[in-house]
Amino acid sequence: MSTMITDVRRRFAAARPLTYLTLLAVAFFSAFPIYWSVVVASHDNSALAQVPPPLLPGGNFFANVARVFDTAPFQLALLNSVLVAGSITLSVMLFSTLAGFAFAKLRFRGRNALLVLTVATMMVPTQLGIIPLYMLMIKLEWTGTMYAVIMPSLVSAFGVFFMTQYLSRALPTELIEAGRVDGATTWGIFWRVVLPIARPAAAVLGMLTFMTAWNDYFWPLVVLTPENPTVQVALSQLASGYVQDFTLGLTGTAIATLPLVLVFVLLGRQIIGGIMQGAVKG
Length: 282
Known about the structure:
The chain has about 280 residues and is an all-alpha fold. It has 13 helices and no strands. The chain has helices at about 1-15, 15-40, 60-70, 75-105, 110-120, 130-140, 145-150, 155-170, 175-180, 185-215, 220-225, 230-240, 245-280.
């Protein structure tokens, strides 16, 4: 193991200056839109017409933040999005790991057919199911509530496929057999053996799921009311109007980006640990 780690370190040490310059350029162009949003959010709308445009933050950020919360129900939208994205993320991580464990290591009739059917659902465009799904929400009397946004996304076909592929390689069958010899049930093996091994992949899946749920716009726009929006619907309200206020919209965008950064900070150690684990194994 130490030899593999040393080899990985040597590869990083042998990287040429061009490699670092390329990485710095990629990091700069990736982070610049976020920085530009903060810069615009800290000026008034007239500053965008300046030549050259301002490249340093101004002093109007907190005033613009107050305008955001006065223009749209942004506080409620943030709470709704945290509830929706958090619930969907936890559910997808749990159920996808459960299903991935079953498809990867358990033997039962129709396993391959069910996995193929699950993957095939990813090929169906989401827009094709909007009308019947909306009719179902009306039948259940869930329109205008968070149930209509959370319930259809509690399980992800991509998450099931992702965890199946990961656990089929990362989870040794011998560990499961050893657990059965010790008298552990399948549920006990899942909690004590599978979950610790699946943690890096589950962290990656959780981050992707949270981002997808947080940035979802179309379905919340269809099923929710303007008085009870998610953050993306509230951002569209900020961007509406005869004269578009870019400062107001980008201030709301900057506020809406903060939870995504927080999620990456919380899950970053697990994600990087999973990447390094794969690099060492390679």
